[in-house]
Batch of 2 targets.
Target 1
Amino acid sequence: MRPGRVVPFLAAFAVWAISEGCDRGPLADRAEKAQRTLGSERLPPDVRPAPEPPARFDVGRPATAAEIAAWDVDVSPSGVGLPQGRGTPMQGAAVYAAKCAACHGGTGEGQVGTPPLGVPAAPKLVGREPSDSFAFGRDPKRVKTVGNYWPYATTLFDYVRRTMPLSAPGSLTNSEVYAVVAFLLAANGVIEQTAVMDSLTLAAVKMPARDKFVVDDRKGGPGFK
Amino acid sequence: MQSDERRLDTGPANGVADAPSDDGAPVAGSGVTRRGLLAAAAVSAGGVVLARLPAGAQAPAAKAAAGAAATQATPAPVATAYELSAVPADPTRAPGPPTSALGARSPFETPSRAPVGIVAGSSLTPLHQLTGTVTPSDLVFERHHAGVALVDPARYELMIHGLVDRPTVFSLDDLKRLPSVSRTMFLECSGNGRGAFRAPKREMSPQAVDGLTSSGEWTGVPLSTLFREVGVRRGGTWFRAEGGDAARLSRSVPMEKGMEDALIAYAFNGEPLRPSNGYPARLMLPGYEGNACIKWVRRIEVANEPGMFRDETSKYTDPLANGTARQFSFVMDAKSIITAPAHPARVAPNVWTQITGLAWSGRGRIVRVDVSVDGGKTWVVAELQEPVLPLAHTRFRVPWRWDGTRTVLMSRAVDETGYTQPTLAEFRDKRGPGTDYHYNYIRSWVVEPDGQMFFGADL
């Protein structure tokens, strides 16, 4: 770029940058960067480098609180997101029998018989074996259940409310979800049969497998982990 | 019709498992699936209907061609579609079929995915029927947990909220207005290879062993652009993505990945995504396991902790031999598989052919692929097809002349971090025989003395 063209260009760039509401660092840095992108190439006199993109394009529309509330069903291990409502194992037994047992079996033993064509075998939900260890890596025959593998009780609420029953996801009331979660936790021996699950008690439940999960330590490079 | 028979012969057979596990990867099987046969038959039936349409009914261009032909004194007979019965003895002696709106495959070529399950299942890419590095759009593998969501693009919205200054809803048009990025990269289900590990069978093809990986050019808007639009607040260390399907599949991803190279992708191989791959928009996390690349993505919440969703706790965690389970094991480590020759191929002795396959790594470029034709005793360096792209399927090749004795072929990938694909023994030792996901150990193929090839199930 000829020196004679640099000054007017920089001036134009500064005007543009201000008008675009640039707020990322001093203009001098940005101008220097724009110049640098030219490298040693000599541009024709009617060609200039493309302007830097703005910090924001102002695309999209504001999400309303009602819209967010309608879609945001996340439940965190801390209990954030757990709704009002409550349920007991006994209430949950009725919900389970009506909505879950057809696929997962009467006592959460998993798929009974052959599932309908194309429908996955419903997993086993109840069972604490192996009670003395977390031997899933060593023993391919171990079957993961809520009681022996799931690290957070809140995940059970989150998942059931989102996806179950498979044929009508989202059809259970919050109290029905609390109840069926209470039923499964009690069946797995995690809570008492007399316990009541609500937004406070569920978040306080500690699952048997809670401490078995470790952060991914693979990092590439030589050696297999 | 001949093509019907060909489809049934070459369709989803080749030892593809028929029992979907809960994570979609086949675990055991008895060959052809009923669903696969039904699907193949339906496709064939559709082909028959198309083939029987008169030439003029297929496209305006075809009408024009027919009109032009009519002006000639003796119009030559024109085949109306690409069907086997229309293939002449000498294609130079009569005009072929007219122009058409969609480019169909040759009737001699009938590659197909191998579907396993319906509501929650997967369809495996026919790796053994493909060449090069790009997977055709209709053969990209699929995996979903509550069926394929059919989404009206005019009603599609992506909401970003949580720890942000400006909770925002983006339409599909909004996303497409923003500066786009195109990137060629692989996508692999972390359950890929489960069937070969848990219930290996000699009659498994590359499709059955590792068909849950595909590669091609993805186009979309960087997630970092969207995060700048909404203004991520201090403390927003994770983002949680939710799909707009009946599973509302959700995963938590570290914010660094979102700022580094994540995309909201809306196109693959130059056209909008196919529904089974997330139409109209999905999350793409280069190098990460497919499950985290949420399809039909409709909501992203910026948070200060992961959601600990079902698919990052009870599923997609890797039990290890030491009595723990690895969590948030996102990156797909280096892996390779010989795609030809491999089961169900039969090789001829004492003639030159090539051994070829695919290698990829979620940590960068493949720098070397070693091939063994003696069961791993010695290795040779394969030629890599340039350009070698990071995080993309890389084609490797070695010329080979089989001497007619029983032997075993293997491939071993090395990526730019220096990571080398482990042996099955190393894999079993470190992870345990009951481990799950990320099955990236060396694959083996047995050549029997008659030239018939089989998957090296326990090698």
Target 2
Amino acid sequence: MRGNHIVGESAIRAGCRFYFGYPITPQNEIPEYMAERLSKVEGGVFVQAESEVASIHMVIGASMAGARVMTSSSGPGISLKQEGISFLSALELPAVIVNMSRGGPGLGNIAPSQSDYFQATRGGGHGDYRNIVLAPNSGQELADLTYNAFNLADKYRTPVIILGDGMLGQMMEPVELPPEIPIKKLPPKDWTLTGAKGRPSRFIRSLILDPFEEEEHNWKLMRKYERITKDEVRYEAYLTEDARLILIAFGIAARIAKGAIKRIREEGLKVGLLRPITLWPFPNKIIKEFTKKVRHFIVFEMNMGQMVEDVKLSLEGMGEVHFYGRPGGVIPTPLEVARVITSYYYQKRLG
Amino acid sequence: MKKVFSRPKSLKTTPFHYCPGCGHSILHRLIGEVIDEMNIQDRTIGIPPAGCAVLAYFYFDIDMGEASHGRAAALATGMKRALPDRIIFTYQGDGDIAAIGTAETIHAAARGENFTTFFINNGVYGMTGGQMAPTTIIGQVTTTSPGGRMVSRDGNPINLSEMLAVAKGSAYIERTSLSSPANILKTKKAIAKAFRVQMEGRGFSLVEVLSPCPTNWKMEPVEACRWIDEVMSKHFLLGVLKDVTGDRKDAH
């Protein structure tokens, strides 16, 4: 099944009945799949909006009404959605936003890239907020993480970003799809706007004119982010037990890196892989832990060096960090990455 | 003693913060009265804007969800699609709906989204201090059209309601004003009709309301009302711009 289709199907199985989007390559198969599928599901709503800006605000409207709702786009479109993502955070509304990112900045190209890491993990829009950012690296993970994204969004009342790329979106892989949740089984929400029938009226707003109240709202968000940081960090450690050099990569780059490490291991080099699955919250504790046994780290990203900053922050000055980046939509082969790792390994006399 | 006049129960007891002579308080009250009279308080959801009326959720005793500047029509689209049996309205000023939110509004109308918009037109950005709006008329002085709006420098104002009337999906568009008791009563009837159009599922409905802003117009309230009648409503003609219901052409 194609990556973009996996996202759509998993979303529907997670109880998503509302999709608002706008075409942009390389994610067009998501709106196409949702248009087809939602037209055949009871209560399904698909709207192709007039813009990315409109689509994210349609997401806000449906989310206020209590619906599980998704939108998707790629780099330039995600930039346009930032206004709404900031509002979703401030209004404490759940939503799932998929970015099948492409080469940038500007229009860039439609090839896979990881250059939207900063935008996704730093919030992206205005104000002090964070998004939960999930970085799948396979068709199976697209299925599992899309499904989980809706649960996380509802649990914390916060937007969740799935940061994929053009390659993941287009790639076809066999996948075991999650079971379908009946809409009635979804946990109830006690904050939605549905009309004040049999209860006092409610409002949802982000304008808080009193600076002390706004400060308190920011603290409230911060406490939520601390809970997320404590409970929701996910990562995969691969062959790190005996490693003398650890490679850190996320998403499709980690998939390539794994291939490289398998190749290198055959030659007896002790290299492991740490793959953050949540880019925010970032697995900084586990990375710091490695410094008890390992001194050398290589960060490999398909950009000019973004996650490497989080790695350095995690290490707090312990350990040496080397960066290998390929921007612009170039997909390096496992062989190329293996050469970089091998050369560094010997240069540092690790074996 | 018999009670002959009271606060609509769809309004909270919070006093309005609006300036003396401002039209927002009147329009809030009219909407509240209509919600009461139609007995729809428990199934109406309002979407307040960015601008002077942003605090509308302190005044209306109904569910309300705030939209960012210009995005109310998109938000209402998502909400109404999720709650098709509720009555949903957006409340937007001229800068909100006719400048930054033009795309959202035109497309919601064209699609025929079944919600109602109250478009309060006072020809200025009130909240931010009286800058030029998309509906500032030629010659009108604002803080960003010093000496009066000039076509050569500032371009022409926009008649959004006329544009929306052309859209296939709009069902009912009327322009009214708050300049006199008679016009206020007409506005109330238009509000009720717009809600009825929505309840009948006919598509997009909008009432544009010419409204005084004495503070930013630098006029006395009475003078401001006179200016609406004598100047503003010559540029923005009052009346029904579109009505697909087949009722009498003029609802009044």
